């Protein structure tokens, strides 16, 4: 099966998403292929979780320093689990929001592995559901690619 697109982004990170978003705004038909999680490094393991952790560390520093400034601070407890849960929920909110946003812009999304075979063709797409890690689906795909249905996409 061959499908034609004006633009295909391999990777739904900051770069791929902003490229297809802008192209779609100009009326181009676009596809984004992501092997792991929508949002890429920045949203899932980079800028966003880093900032949540930084805010938590900063809050701890402020609480500590407050005593020297005359405040009687009584910290009853700290829950690492709650911090992590809040951080993960925040990230999930962003990645879920992206699904609806891409749909609204008419951008197609495939959860799978994209391979550029020439300057106009992306091929060998293995559609992955509930892939637990970045590397497992890639290795799984390499070992089992002949067993999967694949199709070409022309740009
Ligand atoms: C800890 C940390 C903190 C950071 N903090 C900041 C910050 O505060 N501010 C800032 O501006 N930048 C920050 N960055 C940098 C920022 O995350 C990157 O600049 C940005 O994510 C790069 O975007 P990208 O789209 O090029 O790549 P990525 O976001 O890495 O996206 C690439 C995507 O492509 C997918 N992919 C790769 N190969 C394939 C394939 N063959 N098929 C399908 N999918 C594929 C990957 O799974 C990935 O999701 C931080 C980075 C890290 C690691």
Structural overview:
The chain has 5 helices and 6 strands; from the N terminus they run E-E-H-E-H-H-H-E-E-H-E. The two termini are 14 Å apart. It has a 6-stranded mixed sheet. The protein has helices at 14-25, 40-44, 47-68, 80-105, 135-144; strands spanning 2-4, 7-10, 30-34, 108-118, 121-127, 152-154. Helix 3 runs antiparallel to helix 4 (80-105). It has one domain: FAD/NAD(P)-binding domain, CATH 3.50.50.60. Residues 128-141 and 147-152 have low confidence and may be disordered. Helix 1 (14-25) links the parallel strand 2 (7-10) and strand 3 (30-34). With 155 residues, it is of the alpha/beta class. The structure holds flavin-adenine dinucleotide. The site of flavin-adenine dinucleotide has 20 residues, from helix 1, strand 3, helix 2, helix 3 and strand 4. Flavin-adenine dinucleotide (FAD) is lined by residues 10-16, 33-36, 40-42, 46-47, 50, 113-114, 134.
In short:
It contains five helices and six strands; from the N terminus they run E-E-H-E-H-H-H-E-E-H-E. The protein is an alpha/beta fold.
List keywords for this structure.
binds flavin-adenine dinucleotide, alpha/beta, 155 residues, FAD/NAD(P)-binding domain
Number of strands: 6
Strand ordering within the main sheet = 1-6-5-4-3-2
Which second-level CATH architecture applies? Answer: 3-Layer(bba) Sandwich
- Strand percentage, roughly? 15-25%
What kind of assembly state do the chains in view correspond to?
single chain
CATH superfamily: FAD/NAD(P)-binding domain
Give me the number of helical elements.
5
Bound molecules: flavin-adenine dinucleotide
User: What are the low-pLDDT stretches, counting only 5+ consecutive residues below 50?
Assistant: 128-141, 147-152
Question: What would you report as the Rg, rounded to the nearest angstrom?
Answer: 21 Å
Fold-level CATH name: FAD/NAD(P)-binding domain
By secondary-structure content and strand pairing, the structural class works out as alpha/beta
Query: Helix content range of the residues, please?
Result: 40-55%
Shape: elongated
């Amino acid at each position: 099966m061959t499908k034609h697109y004006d633009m295909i982004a391999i990777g739904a990170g900051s770069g791929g998403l902003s490229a297809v978003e802008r192209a779609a705004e100009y009326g181009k038909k676009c596809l984004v292929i992501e092997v792991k999680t929508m949002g890429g490094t920045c949203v899932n393991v980079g800028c966003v979780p880093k900032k949540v952790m930084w805010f938590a560390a900063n809050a701890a520093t402020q609480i500590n320093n407050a005593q020297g400034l005359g405040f009687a601070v009584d910290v009853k407890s700290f829950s690492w689990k709650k911090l992590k849960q809040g951080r993960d929920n925040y990230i999930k909110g962003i990645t879920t929001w992206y699904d609806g946003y891409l749909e609204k812009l008419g951008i197609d999304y495939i959860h799978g592995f994209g391979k550029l075979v020439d300057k106009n063709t992306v091929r060998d797409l293995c559609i992955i559901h509930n892939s637990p890690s970045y590397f497992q689906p890639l290795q799984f795909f390499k070992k089992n690619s002949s067993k999967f249905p694949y199709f070409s996409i022309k740009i």
